[in-house]
Amino acid sequence: MQSSVRVMSRVHWPRKVVVLLSMGMLLLTACGGGGGATSSGGGLNGGGGGSSAGQIKLGALATLTGPFAALGKDGMRGVDLAVAEFNGTVAGKKITVVKESSDATPNVARDAARKLIEQDNVDLMVGPLSGDEGLAVRDYAKTKPDKVFLNGSSGAEDTTLRNGAPNFYRFNTDGVQWMAGLGPYVYKTQGFHRVVTVAEDYSFPYSQVGGFMTGFCGAGGHVVKKFWVPLGTTDYSSVVSAIPKDIDAIYVALGGSDGVNFLKQYVQFGGKGKLIGGSITVDQTVLSTKGTLYQRVLGVASAGPIADNNPDPAWQSFVQAYKAKFSDGLPSPSLFAHAYYLNTKAALLALKQVNGDLSNGQAKLKDALANLQFDTPTGAVKLDSHHQAIGNIYVTVVDKKADGTLYNKLVQIVPSVNETLGFPEDQYLKMGPFNRDTPSCP
Questions:
Q1: Answer CATH for 177-310+392-429 from 3.30.470.20, 3.30.300.30, 3.40.50.2300, 3.50.50.60
Q2: 16-31 pLDDT tens trace
Q3: Does the model's pTM come out above 0.70?
């Protein structure tokens, strides 16, 4: 991060030191022991003490351990990139970023969010990364109505569609939206009519599989079997051996190390079937991995909120800014960098609109976010009545550049996809929440 942004850690003073200092340094201890922009301060919550007048504290939560660690690292790059665009300040106040890690499990994500809000006293937060984490943080947000929560990249549909929190905002499209256009494309263009699915057994892959099947089954396709595996699975031999022979392709919704492990083992076991990728299965966090899966992922169709070779000048500028800032980054920003960037930038734009006013339970900020529309590297974005983004989706196929680098090549843009995939909301809700069994088209 640039020098204008500080990643804070909470200081715990020994009891004896506090006693000795309490009489002579009352003012300093009341300010968190420091003063100035480096103070950990206190968030605004129900009229309590706020951050120092010269700063706004922004919490950032991502998975920096576990199977999605590489994804979380790129998500944090997105936060840093957005803050850098504002030169680390908004409305004349320094943006102090306080980073916290989770491990893709809901309990850890909830506890990390609680630490940011209740111990680090951030004014608002961005995160988390993964689906079940998003549901947990959304529920925690309901207990802190005077704080603003923005999503990181978590893509479970019901984070916003059903039982949302009025102070939780998601400026990235969700896992169902990310699949718009993919089902009809692989059915009509690639000729895949009978497929099986392999996905992790939790809310985000339910959204991915459900979104894919809505289009694929609607086009006339059949999903003859579904395989659900625990998050963090390392041995896929039983899944690979059980995949039927009379299918056209395997739809894979596995991310991070899970995706890499499955693809490598499928190749090692001699798998010859064609593949279809979930949004994070052939994301740059996987494509940048070298080894035996290189040739097997060429030509794999997928869909999501980005396309690596999107010719739009706004996307190209975003890629160049990412590469210039992060020498250790991926060949192209992942959807996680993109999502965290969008949500962080939304927070900063809204703060600018209200001149940093966080009074009255952050009422002005909430209103600004609910009505915010802005241009992004992937087109204009705005929120629906559920505080969920409406945005463009990109159908892609994996290709390689002249230097051998793999990338997702744009083949189709599906514009302005909403949370119900264009269906009337009441009709869409009657389908029921996507889960292990719904939808079905064997």
A1: 3.40.50.2300
A2: 333 333 333 333 333 3
A3: yes
